[in-house]
Amino acid sequence: MDLAEQYRAYIACLNAREWDALGHYVDDRAQHNGKPLGLVGYRAMLENDVRTIPDLRFNIEVLVAEPPHVAARLRFDCSPRGEFLGLQTHGERITFCENVFYTFANGKIVQVWSIIDKAAVEAALGR
Amino acid sequence: MDLAEQYRAYIACLNAREWDALGHYVDDRAQHNGKPLGLVGYRAMLENDVRTIPDLRFNIEVLVAEPPHVAARLRFDCSPRGEFLGLQTHGERITFCENVFYTFANGKIVQVWSIIDKAAVEAALGR
pTM above the 0.95 mark? Predict the structure, then answer.
């Protein structure tokens, strides 16, 4: 399987909010930043993200694939409402990036190590 | 040229503080997070990092190479003294990661997009 292609399909799935299809891309044993979320917890995390950020859209800026890993730099241009990264937000439109590493097994994400640019978010919010 | 091998040699150069060899790995046009540092500015940035964090050591946790890109998740276990990421530090030993993307041209780094896990640093410092 072409991991880059599979990853792009995963991102399209997120942007379409097709949560019922998430199991095509995320494994039942998926971990996120060391937390054993599983598919159910992973979906709950994404649904919560979209509740806080209704206009959340994942834009791939850099994609590096070397099996079993995919690394992506994602760019967001969105308007969080409520608590985001421990900061109170009120619908301000902000731009920031996430640098994230995925490990795949049998074409599905089993591990994620994500860092969001909190300093950029703070700067955008004027903190 | 094997980019993963070249990248490992770059990291060994940093850990050995062999600043005079930096030009083997970093291009004269190098940019870091959008700033046009060049080799001179890049070296100054690293020398400043090491002044603030004398025990700084770069540990590669994940390495993903697909020309012209290398992506790395780096882990640090070190003791900053002074201002670090806008936070005052006093030699506390902390552990945190950096997720970073490099673009290479002719075997040298021309662009870097780095995000350090500031939330982890804040948590480690008890902020």
Answer: yes
The strand pairing partners of B28, in sequence order, are none
Q: Strand A81-84 vs strand A69-78: parallel, antiparallel, or unpaired?
A: unpaired
Residue among A107, A105, A104, A25 at smallest CA distance from A58:
A25
Q: Among A30, B7, A94, which Cα is nearest to A85's? A: A94
Q: Which two tokens stand for residue A42?
A: 């992973």
How far apart CA A3 and CA B83 sit, in angstroms, is 40
**Is residue A118 within 8 angstroms of chain B, CB to CB?**
yes
CB contact under 8 A, B66 and A62: no
Bridge partners, residue A105, by sequence: A108
* Length reported for chain A: 127
Distance CA A18, CA B79 (A): 44
SS3 A119: helix
pLDDT digits (tens, 9 = 90+) for B84-111: 998 999 999 999 999 999 999 999 999 9
A119:B86 CB<8 A:
yes
Q: At the top level of CATH, which class does the domain B3-124 belong to?
A: alpha beta
| ipTM value | 0.96
